[in-house]
Amino acid sequence: MRNAVIIKSFQNGISVYLDPMLSFEELLNEIAFKFKESNHFFKDAKMAVSLEGRHLSEEEERYVLDTIITNSDLHIVCLVGKDEETNQNYLRALQQLEYRNSNQENDGHFYRGTLKNGQILETESSIVVLGDVYPGSAIISTKDIVILGGLFGKAYAGGSGNEGHFVVALEMSPEKLKIGDFKYKNNDKQIRWPIKSKIQPKIAYVKNNRVVMESITKELLSDLTL
User: Fold this and answer.
1) Please, what are the averages of pLDDT over each run of 10 residues along the chain (226 residues)?
2) Which pLDDT value is given to residue 226?
3) Does the domain made of 106-223 have the CATH classification 2.160.20.70?
4) Per-residue pLDDT at 193
5) Largest CA distance in the chain
6) Whether the Cβ atoms of residue 84 and residue 92 lie closer than 8 Å to each other
7) In the prediction, which pLDDT does 217 show?
8) Pick from 94, 26, 38, 90: nearest CA to 64
9) Which residue spans of the chain are classified as CATH 2.160.20.70?
10) pTM for the complete prediction?
11) Three-state SS for 59?
């Protein structure tokens, strides 16, 4: 059933139609076949991905994305949904971050997976995480951190006192967050396992000698000097 997965392009990304009638195991096999067959079109391209045609749980989405990554050279920068304003804001953010990094040394890392309680991921490069950072886990980078999932644990960016870096996440509710020598202070009551609602991508960065956290908007990207 080779029409069970249909790939179409749109600006800055691809939409992937998934047959709603197949079993999930069969669907993953079809995705693997389709992306292996189409891999020559991607050639290390960085794209957003939209999954359409059937309802997927968050766990199923992760399996689909992992299958795409495993069977192609495509670099997925984010998973987009039906909220076009949020999608475009997040894409603009990633484009700006990519442009910024392209003018520096190209040494970013990509990590696929979820960090669970007790796990620590540490790198001297900028890092993109496809997954969540759960409570009790930590991600540490001397440069920038982009999390294509939820940040519910600890994040430390800009090691060695470098405050000119940032942390971006689709959902931002960290136990602790530090950029350079500045710690984020949240006056809101923390919820260990927050109820998921509408995705609000956010960026944390240093402004006026303190860490601020803001929703990603076109205006913010225009005014932000990182």
Assistant:
1) 82 85 95 92 77 87 87 77 53 55 57 89 88 93 88 90 84 92 73 48 88 73 50
2) 46
3) yes
4) 42
5) 58
6) no
7) 60
8) 26
9) 106-223
10) 0.55
11) helix
5-80 fold: Transcription Regulator spoIIAA (3.30.750)
Whole-angstrom distance, CA of residue 166 vs CA of residue 145: 6
pLDDT for the residue 85? 52
Residues 36 and 44: their CA atoms lie apart, in Å, by: 13
